[in-house]
Structure formats: C-alpha cells, structure tokens
Amino acid sequence: MIIKGKSRGGPKQLATYLLRADTRERVELLELQSSAGTLAEAFQEWQLIAEGTQGRRGLYHAFISPHARYPMDTDQWQRAVTILERELGLDGQPRAVVLHESQDRQHIHVVWQRTDIDTMTMVSDSHNYDAHERASLALEREFGHEIVPGKHAKRGIVDPQALRDQVTALYQASDTGASFQQALDDAGLIVAKSDRRDFVVVDEAGDVHSLARQIRGVTTKDLRAFMADVDRETLPTVEQAKALQKDRPTPEPPALAEAPETPRPVDGGSEGVPLDEALRTWHAEDMRRLAEFHAAELDRRATMLDEKIAARLEKSDARRTEALAQYDAQAERSTLARIVDRVIGVVAPAWAERRQAERDEARQAAVNALDRERTQEITRLDAAKRGELADLAERQAEQTRTREAQFTEELTRRVRDYEEAQRFAAQLAEQERQRQEAMQQSHSPGPEPPTRAR
User: What span, in angstroms and rounded, lies between the C-alpha atoms of 225 and 236?
Assistant: First the structure.
C-alpha cells in the first residue's frame, strides 16, 4: 500500500485537482468536516486560519493507494484514514476525503487542516515519511495485503507503474533533453548524475531511480543520445539532489498588485446624509473600483502569460522546423540512389511508386509526431496559464472578502463612535444649559423692601 503526502498551501488549486473531471477517473467526495459549502471554500478557510499563525502551508495532503488486486470497502478506507491521521499527529483536525476510481484501481486523497485552533499552532510535519510508512505497514498487516518495501519503516515507497507512466509521458511530450529535464523538474523530479554515465532521477521522497528504466521502450543508449544537449557536469550528484528535494520550498505565487482605495467620508457624513448611509455609498464605490482593478489585473496577467506562451512556442516551432529539415537532409537521396530510382521507374513503375509512397509515409509520420508534440506542449502551457490565473482570481477573491470584512467592522465602529460622540455632545449641551439657568437664578433681583411710615 502506497502512502505519500506533504504540507502545502494553494487551496484552490488542490481542490480543483481533487475534483477534476477531465480524466477517466470517477471522483467522489466521501467526507468533508467543514461548514463550508464546497471543498475549495473549506481549504481556503483552513489556509486562512494558518496564516494567522504566520504559516504558509496550512494543509496536509496525502494519498493512499492500495494495489489493484486489493479492493477496499468504505469501512477499510475509513480505517486507513484514521490510522494515517494518528501516525501524523493530526487526530481531531478537520479533514476532507476524496475517492478517485479508474477502471482497475482506486485510491483516496485526504486533506487535513494543520492549524490546532486551541493553541493556534501548526501541527508538526516532521518525519512525515516515517509516519506514512508506519501507517502503510500497519494497514497491510491488518488487511492482509502484501507488504510493499520502503525506505524508512520499510523500503522504497514509490508506485513503480505510476512513476513510469508519468516519466514516459513527459519524455514523449519533450523534443529535447533540456526540455525533458525541465518537465521532470516541474513535476517534482530532479535529474542527477550517477557514478557511471547513466542519468538517474530523484523523487520528492528522496528515492533514486534509473531514468532509462522509467521510460517505456527506451534503452540507455537511446536516452544518452536524447540527453546529448544536457551537460552532465551541471547536474547535481545523487546526494545533492536528495538535499535539494528535502529543502525544496513551496513556490510563492506572484504578489498581488496594490489595490486602490476610495477616500473615506468624514465622520459626520455629507450634509443631510447620515453617517451609515454615507459609509455604505462609499463602500459600494470602493468595491466597484476594486472589481475593475481586479479585472484589469487579470487581463494584464493573461496577456503576459499569452506573450510567454507565444515566445515559448516560437522557439519550439523553430526547433521543430530544424528537426524536419534534418530529417529531410538525412532522407535526401544520393546521386547514385536517384539514378537507381529512375531506372526502377522505367523497368518497374509500380515498385517505384510503392517505394516513393513508403518514403512519403515515413516523412508524414515524422511531421505527425512533431505536430503531436506541439499539441501536447500547448496543452501543458494552457493548463499552467489556467492554474496561474485561477490562483490570482482566488487571491483577489480573498482580498475582496478581507475588504468586505474590514468595512463591516469599520461601519460598526464608526457609527458607534459617532453616536457616542453625539450623546456626549448632548450631555455637555444639557449641562451647559443647566449651568446657565442656575446662574440666571442666582443673579435675579429680590422682592421690593417695605415702605417706612411717615
């Protein structure tokens, strides 16, 4: 049973990934311990709570994947989550559980809130790989599954089939060794140099794999030729790659631009307009300007990403044109071969046509392969663009919610202060009135004295 996981941020991206509907997998939300209406809202709340502790990675995301020959029922999935939760020290923390099911196997994703509300501290994620393997071993023994060797409590906790699928797909979508290395790095895999001439790849858990063996249908000799444009001397050693994986931080998203703020009304409001009404009018205008600013920021970011994609595709197209030119140069017939073709065309025209058709078919296959690579690259670039824009929109929405909350708090405070000031002014006015009245009474003339008798 494979269990992997790590602390992370990016609540919106994670929710989108877990509920994605663009694959052949069936997706089912098994559990959500939150009052939020959606998975994305729950993750955003959990991340927001973490930021109150100065934490950046407020979520812990793990997946549990038994072998296809061991189907699991609902009670077993629940038991698996409980045991892993205990080993990670996340007992009692809010969580979400999502089931992914393909034709031949199932796995679940579990996401916990890392912040302990009682202490406002983050649950430690130290030695999490050990915890994964302890949970995996306990579940294999309890359920009677074959024990998968691991590196810590066991050895090598990597799903070989999933890793080969991933690396093979990245290889097939890359047109050079350098682009393949970059694609692996983007996927969290670091290419390193072994003691021999071979290339190896180090996964996020620090496990080392022969790169050639992870690519179906490719030999070590083929891989060396494909990676010819990668300078081995610039690659890290295995130990350096392990250290890089251990210390690799979660990338920070680009900072939000400074949003505009509308000048606030004075405490008394405008002439003839109560303060609360003046504040609500001001807030409506402030939010309108903020929405316009967010829309413009999204447009700017989309334009910038489109320009980056266009530049990337321009370089890729140049490489593909060069690759096709090299193919044509290699396929160009020598003088003797052209003479033989003419002779064959005279004595056996049908055979000559078949030979030319085979050459045309081979060239078209090369063109089709280059076209497929371009389509796959466009798909990857568009997916990255959508993810970045979705992250920006999520952070903008959080900025909007923050400003709404600040307005509600400010409205309550300023109206309360204004009303208290009015009451105090009224009290002072009443005291002054009473004082003036008392002074008038103390200085008023008394009754006329009696007249004396003559």
Answer: 20
The Cα 454–Cα 451 span in angstroms is: 9
240: Cβ contacts below 8 Å, ≥ 6 apart: 192
Domain membership flag for residue 155: no
Is residue 167 domain-shared with residue 126, that is, in the same domain? no
Whether residue 445 lies inside any domain: the answer is: no
Distance CA 77, CA 71 (A): 10
Query: Across residues 247-268, what is the average pLDDT?
Result: 67
Sheet harboring 190-193: ordered strands across? 190-193, 199-202, 208-210
Return the DSSP state at 426.
H
pLDDT tens per residue across span 70-117: 888 888 999 999 999 999 999 889 999 999 887 778 899 999 999 888
Please provide residue 278's backbone torsions phi and psi, each rounded to the nearest 5 degrees.
Answer: -65, -40
Reference 5, options 90, 118, 76; nearest CA is: 90
Count, residues in the chain: 454
The answer on 112 and 177 residing in a single domain is no
| Pairing mode, strands 95-101 and 26-32 | antiparallel
In a domain, 444, yes or no: no
**230 and 188 part of one domain:** yes
Written as one letter, the residue type at 224 is R
Helix (H) or strand (E) holding 193: strand 190-193
Q: For residue 399, how far is the Cα from the chain centroid?
A: 18
Radius of gyration from C-alpha coordinates of the chain = 35
Structural domain ending residue among the three candidates 143, 172, 191: 143
Q: Which helix (H) or strand (E) holds 8?
A: strand 2-8
pLDDT, tens digit (0-9, with 9 covering 90-100), for 117-140: 878 888 888 878 888 888 888 888
Query: Which tens digits make up the pLDDT trace of 318-327?
Result: 877 887 787 7
Q: What angle do CA 156, 157, 159 make, to 5 degrees?
A: 110
Structure tokens at 161: 């089939």
Question: In whole angstroms, what is the distance from residue 12 CA to residue 23 CA?
Answer: 19
Q: Is 154 helix (H, G, I), strand (E, B) or coil?
A: coil
How distant is the alpha carbon of residue 297 from its chain centre? 19
Residues in CB range of 3: below 8 A, 6 or more apart: 62, 63, 64, 65, 84, 132, 133, 135, 136, 157
> Residue 450 is encoded by which pair of tokens?
């009696």
Distance CA 371, CA 418 (A): 69
Contact status, residue 27 vs residue 100, Cβ threshold 8 Å: yes
